[in-house]
Write a structure and sequence with these properties.
Number of helices: 0
Number of strands: 32
Strand content: 35-45%
Helix content: under 10%
Largest sheet: 5 strands, antiparallel
CATH architecture: 7 Propeller
Distance between the termini: 28 Å
Mean pLDDT: 87
Structural class: mainly beta
CATH superfamily: YVTN repeat-like/Quinoprotein amine dehydrogenase
CATH class: Mainly Beta
Radius of gyration: 20 Å
Shape: globular
Low-confidence stretches: 1-26
Strand order of the largest sheet: 1-9-8-7-6
CATH topology: Methylamine Dehydrogenase, Chain H
Length: 370
Amino acid sequence: MNKFNLVRSLLLPAAILTIVGCTKTKNINNNQVIATPYSLYFTDTAGTLYSSTDGRTSSVIFAADGVANRCIFAMNSNLLMAKSALYVSSDNGTNFNYSYDAAKVATYPKTNNHGRYYDMNQSMAIFLPQWSNHGYIVSRDPDPTNYFGFAWNASDGLNGWTPESTYDPLTVIAAHVGNIRVTSFTCLQNNTAIALDANTKRGLYRANFNPLGWSEMQSSTGIPDSLDMPGGNTNYSLGHINNRVIAIDNNGSAGACYSDDLGATWHQYTGLPANTPLTCIASPFEQICMVGTDSMGLFTINNNTNSFEQVSNGLGTNLVVRSIAFKENVFKSGTKQQYIYIATNQGIYQSSDLGHNWTKTIPGNFVAIY
């Protein structure tokens, strides 16, 4: 079937971005009236998709189907979720239709976290509204122009995806065209997007939607075949903090490393537990970098020592952190309240102080959060 349509009886309680108005009275405190609320989406291991506007109560918008979501993200007002295929909803989750079929959406990587198999990869897709509303997703489309293993869409996930074939031939090694299969994305604060092939340790970058297309990251060692990242049995996925590229090893053998020069040189982080799968990374509000682990909880970078430290205030033991999201409420006065959320094997946790303290708000066994 070319179209997959699922009708749910529960409507999304709020659009991805909703403007809430109020009538002014003398008794209203604009520091307490939300002008722009957020919507939070998360999925459990049974494939259920939930929505929430406060991180404490939730509604089901897609019932369990036995297939855990690999990632969820939004392109403007459309909501997308990747299972075996990529689906898109244009009506706040009431209906989902095919966006990209199962034969083309990459099923890699699937990480074996201590015997628990989940496709945990929020970084397999990225939406860059500042790039003329372009979104990207890893792809194994057999189209011969799928040079780098990912596809783009500039129609909010509708009207199909196009294999990426635009690149700068002066910077991309000719032998690598058609032999790079991107598995992860991130975008730096300076509007430079990074894409990595975890298998070959080859990377691409593109600054400010450069019309020349994507350039290849080059190692300072002069070895042309791959980046000089810590080796071994690794499966890196990407993150960043400000303009620093960070790679975490989902397999757990190499920890985390970073590059301040677009991949030319890489440096090892300290402080993360040895031989522990690193499952997710995010830098909420570009103020703090967080890494989730399998069974060892959550770690954050100490900016003074440039090393990771474990966070424990309010978090459970043996915690598997699978995904990280951050949201903010904007009040009529212009002030903001920022929240960070983590999806774990023990529930959804919320922090309102940049990750120093946590409260479990929703119990359950969750995979992806956005």
